[in-house]
Amino acid sequence: MTEFQAVVFAAGRGTRLPEVLGDAPKCLLPVGPYPLIWYPLNLLQQHNFTEVIVVVLEQEKLEIQSALENTPLKLRLDYATIPSDGDFGTADSLRYIYDKIKSDFLVVSCDLVSNVSLYPLINKFREHDAALAMLLFPSGFESDVVMPGPKSKHKPERDLIGIHAATQRLAFVSAASDCEETLNIQRHLLKNRGRLDVYSRLVDAHVYVLKKWVIDYLRRKENISTFKGEFLPHLIKKQHSKRPPKTVQDTTSEVGVVTKNEDHVLHYVGHTILDQKITQTSLFNQSLSQSPYHGDIVRCYGIQAPRDAIGVRVNNTLSFLAINRKLASIWNNLCGEKHPLISPGAVVKSTQTKEIIAADNAKLSEKTSLNFSVFGPNCIISPKNIVANSLIMSNAIVEEGCNIDNCIIGHRAQVKSGSVLKNCIIGPNYVVEEGTHSQAVHLSNADQFMEIDIQ
Amino acid sequence: MAQFEKEIVQAVLIADNNVWNFKPLSDEGSTALLPLVNVRMLDYALMALNRSGVEEVFVYTSLYRSSIREHIRAGIATDAAWSFKMTVHVIGGEGCRCFGDAMRDLDNKALIRGHFILLGADTVTNADLRPVLEQHKRQAKFDKGTAATLVFKECANNVRTGNEVLIAVDRRNDRLHYHQRLRMHHKENRYQLPLDVFLGNSCVALHHNLLDPQIAIGSPSMLSLFNDNFDFQTRDDFVRGLLINEELLDSRIYVALLPAAQYAHKVNNWPAYQLVSRDIINRWAYPFVPDIGLYKLQQEYVFHKDNIYKSPEAHVSKVALLQNVVIEAGSHVDSGSVISDSVIGANCRIGKNCRLTNAFLMADVTVMDNCRLEHCVVGEGAIINEDCDVSAGCVLGAKSVLPAKKTLAKTLITRTPSRRRSDDEVVVELKSIGPHAYIVSDLTTGDPEDSECEDLLPQQPLSIPKMGDLLAPLDEISYCSDFSEDDEDASRAVTPLPDDTNIFLGEVIDSLTRGFREKSNPDFLVLEINSSRYAYNMSLKEVNFNVVKAVFGMQSIVEPANDNVLVAINAAFKQLGPVVSNYIKSEDSMMDCLKALEDVYEENHLVRGKISQIVHYLYDKDFVSESAIQAWYAQLDEEEHAHLRQSLAKLVAWLDQSSEEDDDEEDDD
């Protein structure tokens, strides 16, 4: 049996990037030459994983499967499907695939593009017999990219993450929007635990290393639906709880209610008497109190990626554009040189190109100036075009004499000749009429979707 | 300008503080001259400054200016350790009533020319403050609004002496963003910090385990800030004011932490006095240890094992001293007495068979035979007669005389019979226990706010902190925290995540409670409940169940007047009956209703007691039919609902019987 199994969540619906999604699954969004989901899978492959469980929606399974078959992956993929109609949260999905988890496991989100080494994370997990270890990135990957489309009050969601400096243990993870005016910090999080660092600009990479028993516990907690929003804070809180005394029959109650003993998190931890004896005799004590780990049996750790590591979560339109624009410059750091940026099937006749990525069968004509841009499969760029900082998605056509700067041109969209577009989002299948001059607008066919600002 | 050619290092020393905390000894002289392990506190502070390379010190005093001046003069005359390469000025006046006044006065006198070290005379530290001063100057060059750098020291947070703080510091530049003094007698369960502190900075470090030794590096602007803001009374006011009006005052405070090897503590009350004495005896404050001639430049003690410092001129047998004892010249201990963890001043006499633990005796104290002294301070020249038991934080004022065979605990004794209250000039008669011993109760000492240079927390209870066993609070804390954690955990477990059903139930309860109180039209309530029903997508079954549950969940039934639940139910159904019967019509819905009752039965012990009457009542008022009750009773699990079945058995039997007899005679319960 392997030490760790890996689970990649690819059943997200991509609610935060409606403009670019079209009808394709979120995990198949094109990031450079590959679909989004290839990046976390590649990351796992680089860490010598051979088998990965991919959680997908039932209806999207075939599409994802065929897309991944076209990529150079040696992983054995085990597709776990969840019903498309059910409103499954991440925790629900984990509960759903409960039977597949046989050992400690990694959970990775399909929208992670990173070159970070997971070994420090895994080693911390091993070293301290942790219940959970999570990876954190510094934010700001997309800070220098202007969001195309109409100006909106784009407020990134921020987490407040408290980590004990000496031990890297997580004290709390909470969304800043959940707090009112003040942040409440319990005394036991501060007492005898030294310095507590509170970070507001770290991004949860959605890479978690988890103990097997965690999913047993999660299975019990049926009212918990999301992993990040509900289960993670719950588990982190439970770190400090003490094992309740063995159930005593409630004598006051005439009914004799059976107390659910297994309801408590600590009954799930495989903490044997031998473990206790080892702890007692061990000289190891990192904490400032009498017993190692303050006697906490559940331990959660937060590991920060090194500063120079690349890490971005492609979960909104802005980060999607940012990763595509910057991909060429970070490609070698990200994946090594093994994977060519200009697909062999692409036809690139343009001579003035700088840091571009062209997918299979993209036709980039001569007499064009193409910089810092990504060209999807089957897209056609006619001669006499200037395209900079943009993303041209599959089957899109740009006719002659256009100037496109910081735009997203959707699938099968068409930009007719002479158009000048800056900071625009062109929806899928949309046809930009000849000679259009537009700036900072979102052009799309009809109201295919409503934009709901959840925040 | 000439003064910039060589900038001399200046320091300000605030004396005469903590007057209230050190009563009654502070009535007789400056607290700065109180001996701590037989050396005046002022000398510790001066030596700390001397070691940090300070060249000019201003000692700011108010009440006892002459005695402090006299002490400084004597120190220079006898070549005290601090008198080299350092000039000491004593300034101040009677009008100065608080720390803020002192700062304003200093600003007006224009004595301070650059960045300066600010210290209380009650600080004991062996820290080298030069690196902190340099860091402050660098910071000031970078940020013109640098007002001060506060110096903190990490500590074990087990004993609170009123100096512990919780601060939030920006990790990038050590800027202070939040400052909260931890209360001495109160353990906070949680701390509330403004969210902006965290959102505005990428990484903020929270330090909870810090001790504030009242050391600061001030910029010249610090003094003028005090002058501009006349409401700044204490240093804490200054910190608070600057943090709140950061932009308005354009000033910032930075933080420096002392390295682990350096010692710093403030002696601001008796527990701290005890703590620091212990630390000095245990050599944590090295080189400030008793066997190095701290003040007189001559060795006064011989250092024995177990931290026993014995003057060669003290007459005491070795057996008498257990551990951690300092005994000065001229003292005499008779046979049979045992001393540990104590400090004995010069020329003390201790009789036979005495036990002294954690006792602090100033000079010329006489303790007669068979006394027990524990956790107490005895002022200069005091006499304790035979067979006394003095413990738990007692303080005996100078020259007081304790009669024989007294047992004292937590009491302050003074020699003088009466005391004037500082504010209203009322003479308070003190309770006498001897011709030269009067009990000072905490209340007669006056409000702490009234006394000089006080920097206590306003919330602090009106009681002078007393000495005690330093280890005792430790257990209490750990017990406390465990308890609170458990407690919290329990409450967490009880509150389930609100799902739609619970929200729906909550809304129905709200609607019904309001309808019941305001006697509103039942039709409107039905409308309200129905709209809630559609909002949460409840099935009809769930609605039936929850409406009945909601009726029984109303406050008036959960906590009925006089615990008479039947009356309450009757009142509720009188008003809300139409609402209930709107939902409970069919046999199925009656089953839902009884199921809900089953739930209520388990939650509400009053209902539990009267369940058969309640079911009977519902039957009487035609909410539930006979067959529904029988069907419900039949499906109740034999084991799980044994009690419920038992309570209902009679009723069901009666129903069976009455149906057989076809008797519909009604009996009111």
Written account of the structure:
The complex is a heterodimer of chains A (455) and B (669). Chain A is built from ten helices and 33 strands. Chain A has 455 residues and is α/β, with parallel strands linked by helices. Chain B is 37% helix and 22% strand. Chain B contains 21 helices and 34 strands. In chain B, a hairpin with a 2-residue loop joins strand 33 and strand 34 (437-440). Chain B is elongated. Strand 12 of chain A pairs antiparallel with strand 12 (203-218) of chain B.
SSE inventory with pairings:
The complex is a heterodimer of chains A (455) and B (669).
Chain A: E1 4-9, H1 18-21, E2 30-31, E3 34-35, H2 38-46, E4 51-57, H3 61-69, E5 76-82, H4 90-96, E6 104-109, E7 112-114, H5 119-127, E8 132-138, E9 159-164, E10 170-175, E11 182-186, H6 187-190, E12 196-199, E13 202-210, H7 212-220, H8 227-238, H9 273-281, E14 300-304, E15 311-313, H10 317-335, E16 347-348, E17 352-354, E18 357-358, E19 363-364, E20 369-371, E21 374-375, E22 380-381, E23 386-388, E24 391-392, E25 397-398, E26 403-405, E27 408-409, E28 414-415, E29 420-422, E30 425-426, E31 431-432, E32 437-439, E33 442-443
Chain B: H1 2-5, E1 10-14, E2 35-36, E3 39-40, H2 41-51, E4 56-60, H3 65-77, E5 87-91, H4 99-109, E6 116-120, E7 123-125, H5 130-142, E8 146-154, E9 164-170, E10 176-181, E11 190-194, H6 195-199, E12 203-218, H7 220-228, H8 235-244, H9 246-249, E13 252-257, E14 264-266, H10 270-281, E15 302-304, E16 308-310, E17 325-327, E18 332-333, E19 338-340, E20 342-344, E21 349-350, E22 355-361, E23 366-367, E24 372-378, E25 383-384, E26 389-391, E27 394-396, E28 401-402, E29 407-409, E30 412-414, E31 418-420, E32 427-429, E33 431-434, E34 437-440, H11 472-494, H12 500-518, H13 522-536, H14 540-553, H15 555-558, H16 565-583, H17 587-603, H18 605-609, H19 611-620, H20 626-635, H21 642-661
Parallel strand pairs in B: 1-4, 1-6, 4-5, 8-13, 16-17, 17-20, 18-21, 19-22, 20-22, 21-23, 22-24, 23-25, 24-26, 24-27, 25-28, 26-29, 27-30
Antiparallel strand pairs in B: 2-3, 6-12, 7-14, 8-12, 9-10, 9-12, 15-16, 30-34, 31-32, 33-34
Helix pairs in contact in B: 4-7, 12-13, 12-14, 13-16, 14-16, 14-17, 17-20, 19-21, 20-21
